[in-house]
Amino acid sequence: MNAKLDAGLTTRNVTRDTFDEVLVPTYAPAAMVPVRASGLDLWDQAGKHYLDFTSGIAVTSLGHCNPALADALTQQIHKVWHLGNGYTNEQVLRLALALTEATFADRAFFCNSGAEANEAALKLARKYAHAKFGESKSRIVSCLSSFHGRTLFTVSVGGQPKYTEGFEPLPPQLSHIPYNDIEAARAAITEDVCAVIVEPIQGEGGVIPGDPEYLKALREFCDKTGALLIFDEVQSGVGRTGELFAYMGKGVTPDVLTSAKALGNGYPIGAMLTTNEIAHHFGVGTHGTTYGGNPLAATVALNVIETINQPAFLARVKEASARIFANLDKLTADFPQLFGKVRGSGLLIGLPLAEGFKGRAKDFTKACEALGLMLLIAGPDVVRLAPALIVSDEQIARADQIMREAIDAMLNDAPAK
């Protein structure tokens, strides 16, 4: 046997240093290595406990190792795992029915990630426009500071140059405009535009809610020019805002909607939802995926939708949100030198740092992590909170307590003026 394989592969000792030895360095993960989790509780290799207010970047919205989801997945594992796309399966059909019955959409396409869902949406928009108006209608408009995925196409559509540097030449016919700027949108969305893609709440760009009037203006401009309006709800969807999807609280209906992250609660699945009129332009063979809509992923997602899309559940998300916002409002009032005005929607919340502490969001999350609270950042200047939607009042209070304790570390290590 190869000497490298002598040790038991499933039991060999690994540490954070192993990451630096064998993984492509596309991430810089924390020093601790999580090994066990339940709900919002997580433990690392040393047995240290953490309160997780990240939910895997707004993914595990029903908590880690949710028992109902684990049971459903286990049952499906003993039935069928995978089928080639020459076949369908009962679970994906049930999931498609659940999503189309709950939304504006008539049709669903399933894939494995948010990037793939957005890739499908953008390809469909071009296909639709070329068939209906001709190939000259191909330009795509998106927003600066947006994030739509990491494929070459989606990362180019996203409005953050730091993610495209070194990957040139980029796909053509892409335009970027300021978020929440109606006049910039009016000028950009002309007859050659096939699609406008927008996050109803910018996530990676700083947790910035879209103004309802801005989103309504995008709808108006798209209707006028024949462009499709695509809502990227990869982060904001599946209950995160207290609505099943954020568009439902904005008074604007898109032509295409993309979803992923929380849809599978950590099991990889993405979805693109659209109407009959648009969907028929994706005929047999025009697009596809090997694993998309497989029975395992579809089973988990179906149970996620069934759990979250209940009035009482969504009402509790809004109640928990109000409690966290109240705590953060008091925190910013108590420490105005450190924090700016809290923003966001539901349980997708951004806490900007004040002028003197800009660039130090990661410092604050590290201080919280040392005290047992896991938080996110949304760029260098914004602390992001995205707890599981099942977060309790006690956990909300504990997070507030830890954040206040972490402030001492920030203030005692304040940068020189």
TrEMBL record:
N(2)-acetyl-L-ornithine binds at R150, T289. Pyridoxal 5'-phosphate binds at G114, A115, F147, D232, E233, V234, Q235, T290. GO terms for cellular component: cytoplasm. Gene3D superfamilies: Aspartate Aminotransferase, domain 1 (3.90.1150.10), Type I PLP-dependent aspartate aminotransferase-like (Major domain) (3.40.640.10). Its cofactor is pyridoxal 5'-phosphate. The modification N6-(pyridoxal phosphate)lysine is found at K261. It is found in: Cytoplasm. PROSITE patterns: AA_TRANSFER_CLASS_3 (PS00600). It catalyses: N(2)-acetyl-L-ornithine + 2-oxoglutarate = N-acetyl-L-glutamate 5-semialdehyde + L-glutamate. GO terms for biological process: L-arginine biosynthetic process. Its EC number is 2.6.1.11. GO terms for molecular function: diaminobutyrate-2-oxoglutarate transaminase activity; identical protein binding; N2-acetyl-L-ornithine:2-oxoglutarate 5-aminotransferase activity; pyridoxal phosphate binding. Keywords: Amino-acid biosynthesis, Aminotransferase, Arginine biosynthesis, Cytoplasm, Pyridoxal phosphate, Transferase. It comes from the Bacteria. Its main location: cytoplasm. SUPFAM superfamilies: PLP-dependent transferases. Binds 1 pyridoxal phosphate per subunit. HAMAP family: ArgD_aminotrans_3. May also have succinyldiaminopimelate aminotransferase activity, thus carrying out the corresponding step in lysine biosynthesis. Belongs to the class-III pyridoxal-phosphate-dependent aminotransferase family. ArgD subfamily. PANTHER family: AMINOTRANSFERASE CLASS III (PTHR11986), SUCCINYLORNITHINE TRANSAMINASE (PTHR11986:SF113). This is Acetylornithine aminotransferase.
